[in-house]
Amino acid sequence: QVQLVESGGGLVQAGGSLRLSCAASAGIFTIGSMGWYRQTPGKQRDLVATITSGADTNYADSVKGRFTISRDNAKKTVYLQMNSLKPEDTAIYYCNADRLGTNKGPMYDLWGQGTQVTVSS
């Protein structure tokens, strides 16, 4: 099954760090831009950070200087290093890939299942 699988979420105190990972399953051969988004109950899903296949990055203003997105194309994995976490960073974090080449043909706008990040004050 073609999918993105996130890991690394959890509970951390304010000021702490977490590293999220998102791995593409077998059957995914190429990936365009990848990104992390987050969502809290009753609110829309917001962009956190994106990275192109050429490693150009973009960040939401609220996380600039604290979060770093990176990718390992050989491992088909994208990471989000989150430092200096704040209670307002609490959310479900979702991984996204905009374009993929797969064994089922091209796919677009694939989402992972999400991973919970909770920052206590």
Can you describe what's shown?
The protein starts with a strand and ends with a strand. It has 121 residues and is an all-beta fold. The protein is 0% helix and 59% strand. The strands form two sheets. Strands 2, 4, 5, 6, 7, 10, 11 and 12 form an eight-stranded mixed beta sheet that branches.
How do you describe this structure in short?
This protein has strands at about 5, 10-15, 20-25, 30, 35-40, 45-50, 55-60, 65-70, 75-80, 90-100, 105-110, 115-120. It is built from no helices and twelve strands. The termini are far apart.
Q: What is this structure's SSE topology?
A:
Layout: E1 4-7, E2 10-13, E3 18-24, E4 28-31, E5 34-39, E6 46-51, E7 57-59, E8 67-72, E9 77-82, E10 91-102, E11 105-111, E12 115-120
Parallel strand pairs: 2-12
Antiparallel strand pairs: 1-3, 3-9, 4-10, 5-6, 5-10, 6-7, 8-9, 10-11, 10-12
Report on the biggest sheet. Answer: 8 strands, mixed
Fraction in beta strands: over 45%
Order of helices and strands: EEEEEEEEEEEE
Distance between the termini: 39 Å
Radius of gyration: 14 Å
| Coarse morphology | globular
Low-confidence stretches: none
State the share of residues found in helices, binned by percent. Answer: under 10%
Give the oligomer, counting copies of the same chain as homo and different chains as hetero: single chain
Count the strands?
12
| Annotation field: number of helices | 0
